[in-house]
Design goal:
The chain is α+β, with helices and mostly antiparallel strands. It has 14 helices and 15 strands. α1 runs antiparallel to α2.
Length: 510
């Protein structure tokens, strides 16, 4: 009798997106380099040694601004962010006050009031086609509509290898199915939160369901168990956000009635078509959030102290005799009462958040569970991680990959002419690019992806410890993190909220 062992699949091939105007230089960086070259040549052309004393240091300064790096950014980009931040501080645009200061409309109603880039968002009410109500997040600037669903999954670590491999392949199939030419779905976000649980919801549920005839000794033992184990527990919430562009889907939207109603109907239809593939990947849709639950998700990200109140309200609403406030929250109360953005920190209500971007994925082959260290339970902090995907259509993917290969071939020809040997890193990047092009030609999809991680504490003294723990866990996962200096509020919106906030537009490279 022989036993066959299935080997877990491994994954590799992440490539950083090229964002330079020419090479690794931005448009401003290229202008600085060109200006430095002109300034350095002027005294040589004029045969003026006194002019060279002034021109050469100035040219060196411009080159330093073009090629220098500060905190992982080009020097000129860092200066731009620093100046923009200082202007915001001077004009107090980094401060946000709502609560009693929130504006009201002409009818005296208080609309949803959110800070920064979130101020444009509106939560609409749409029908799910079965008599229920859904909450659709509308971005009128980008003309997009986002649906948020809470999902559960059995996990990968405790299942056999065959099922683990199959679920990952089904998730890849789901992503590939969205890589359509001019597809209506422009963004997918997987958002997971890991937060400490004080056990209040468990104690509240137990007090309502315990039998009056229960033995006192058993009740006492149960109470002691909850007091000791409850605060050590961790809650994990997982959300899937699907974003539709009404510009791309204008014909379908028009056929569904047009306007916001038509766009919401098309988005619901697209999501319902996804549920079969999601189920094959092991993802079970628990619920599609209604407006009150969407507002609650936003509120608990800004104000962790409200988690206990909203969890107790949800538990109580499950009783048949409950006649109090419905689960969730009024969208008018979704935002924070106050928020302040500093250079490296975002303070909102009674919490502080630092957000990181994953700048480098593992160079070696990894298993499907390599991100697990990032969501380890921590008693002093809550963590949020967002994986944002933007499907790329076949035609655009072919152009992009062809451009990348042409650039690499031109660089290889230049290396041979100059006699410089090709490094192992360059060979590896060429091989990855070739494999990607082969996979695309065989029917695979291409997606843009960004990973963002936020760590939030309610005690400022514990922030640096929580950040150090996150960086250590990221190192265990083989990731390279960079703090989102100068853009903490925008990074928080993408990392800590499942609202489909997307990737920045790509700067075209030559």
């Amino acid at each position: 009798m022989s036993l066959t062992t299935t080997t877990p699949d491994t994954y590799r091939g992440w490539q950083a997106e090229k964002s330079g105007f020419i090479g690794n230089l931005s448009g401003v960086g290229f202008s600085l380099m060109a200006a430095a070259a002109v300034i350095a040549l002027i005294p040589i052309y004029l045969h003026s040694w006194s002019g060279a004393v002034v021109a050469l240091p100035l040219a060196a300064l411009l080159l330093l601004l073009a090629y220098g790096r500060v905190m992982g950014l080009a020097a000129e980009e860092w200066i731009f962010l620093a100046v923009r931040h200082q202007i915001a501080v001077a004009t107090k645009r980094n401060l946000f006050y709502s609560g009693v200061f929130a504006p009201a409309d002409k009818e005296g109603n208080q609309p949803m009031d959110l800070p920064g880039v979130l101020a444009r968002l509106r939560i609409l009410t749409a029908s799910d086609g079965q008599g229920g109500k859904l909450g659709i997040v509308h971005n009128p600037i980008d003309n997009t509509y986002t649906l948020v669903a809470r999902v559960t999954f059995p996990g990968l670590a405790l299942i056999d290898t065959d099922r683990q491999n199959n679920r990952v392949r089904q998730w890849a199939t789901f992503l590939r199915s969205q890589c359509k030419e001019d597809g209506a779905i422009v963004r997918l976000q997987v958002h997971q939160r890991s937060l400490p649980d004080d056990g209040e919801a468990l104690r509240s549920w137990t007090s309502r369901h315990i039998s009056p005839d229960a033995p006192p000794a058993a009740v006492q033992a149960l109470g002691e168990l909850m007091e000791s184990a409850g605060p050590a527990a961790t809650i994990r919430e997982t959300y899937l956000s699907v974003t539709l562009s009404s510009t791309r889907a204008r014909l379908a939207v028009r056929g569904a009635g047009g306007g916001q109603i038509g766009a919401a109907a098309v988005l619901v239809r697209e999501f319902n078509a996804m549920t079969g593939t999601l189920s094959s990947a092991g993802l079970q849709v628990v619920e599609v959030l209604d407006p009150r639950r969407v507002a609650a998700v936003i509120r608990t990200a800004f104000d962790p102290h409200s988690q206990q109140m909203l969890a107790a309200r949800t538990s109580a609403a499950g009783l048949e005799s409950w006649t109090g406030t419905a689960p969730g929250l009024d969208p008018a109360l979704a935002g924070p009462a106050a928020a302040e953005t500093t250079w490296g920190l975002y303070q909102h209500d009674g919490a502080w958040t630092v957000t990181y971007q994953v700048r480098g994925f593992p160079q070696s082959e990894v298993f499907a569970t390599f991100l697990q260290p990032l969501l380890r339970p921590r008693s002093n902090a809550r963590r949020s991680m967002s994986l944002v995907y933007e499907p790329v259509g076949p035609s655009k993917a072919r152009r992009e990959l062809s451009r990348e290969r042409s650039k690499r071939q031109a660089a290889g020809i230049l290396r041979k002419k100059t006699g410089r040997a090709e490094s192992e890193d360059e060979r590896r990047e060429d091989a990855i690019a070739r494999d990607q092009d082969i996979a695309r030609a065989s029917g695979q999809g291409v997606v843009r992806m960004v990973a963002l991680i936020a760590v939030t504490v309610t005690n400022l003294d514990e922030l640096e410890t929580a950040c150090a723990e996150l960086q250590a866990d990221a190192s265990d996962a083989g990731l390279e993190l960079r703090r989102c200096w100068g853009a903490m509020d925008e990074a928080f919106a993408a990392a800590a909220l499942p609202l489909g906030m997307g990737l920045p537009p790509r700067r075209t490279a030559l």
